[in-house]
């Protein structure tokens, strides 16, 4: 006899539906609560640069380029103008102090010299003639005075005799008065003669003094013209390397025109161009260094040229311990110019990411090494090697520092 079997609750179909429902519920929970909805991009790890954040001294410096120049350069400017008749030395030659470099010709200067010399000779003759005339006049005046004294002595004797005879009433009064007037006239005449001689003597001395002054000035002019003519021969003012000589035979040179320069080879310096952005932070005494001949050499700013041209200004840097052996004029070299003292900081290597993010965020590689996640950061100072990290990164973090140009706005990069 058939028996009715009890109906089971967990049938195969019901179990299958239950399991499917649980899986669907789990999927929905994961999708809405646990799944990562951030935008992702797959990248090839070997095509990016990953750098490690570190702790260390942050040295604020800039990389500049310096050009080796002589410690002292002497400009050759034409003292006088003229046309070149002879060029004895070419640029690039070593010269000695006083060595003749050029010979110039200037007919106007020669004519002025001859006129001045002629005037000086005329004044010399005038002075000699005036002195000679004074001597002759002195003899003439002495002779006139001697003759006048002789006549005065005779008149005095006559007057004294007539006075005695008139007192004795031996002669008439008229004879006495005539002798007296003659004597007094000669006395007065002698006084006038002496005064006239003094005046002529003083006038002659004044003329001589004036002529001597005019002659002295004219002779100084002659000497000046002579010196000017000597400047038609251009000589080296110092010993050194005649680096340039920008004239040729037959060319005309104006007074004050630069015709070349001589480099003093006893020492060197570096002429450095710097972006005008740093002009307020550059001053004499700042240190720098550069690599040459397998070693590091120290430099120090000695002079700042404040004039800005094309967005740059220049400084002179001297070698703190002397120029290295083998360095030559015109060589250029990168220089590490320090702007301040080193300070401890969190350091992020410089890279192309900055141009894409402005330093506001970076991709940081997680611990698995299989992905990098966008993270906001704050950067401070910068030197050619590192950024100073103020916020957002710690020592040991792995950061993508190459360009982000192809990453778009994705938040996660998967390797």
TrEMBL record:
Record carries keyword Mitochondrion: no
Intracellular or extracellular location(s): Cell envelope
Main location: other
Pfam families named in the record: HH_CzcB (PF25893), RND-MFP_C (PF25967)
Coiled coil stretches, renumbered: 189-228
Keyword flag Transmembrane: yes
Keywords: Coiled coil, Membrane, Transmembrane, Transmembrane helix
Alphabetized InterPro entries for the sequence: HH_CzcB-like (IPR058648), MdtA-like_C (IPR058627), RND_pump_MFP (IPR006143), UPF0194_transport (IPR050465)
Domain spans labelled CzcB-like alpha-helical hairpin: 146-187
Residue ranges of the TM segments: 15-35
Multidrug resistance protein MdtA-like C-terminal permuted SH3 domain segment(s): 346-403
Family: Belongs to the membrane fusion protein (MFP) (TC 8.A.1) family.
Name of the protein in its database record: Efflux RND transporter periplasmic adaptor subunit
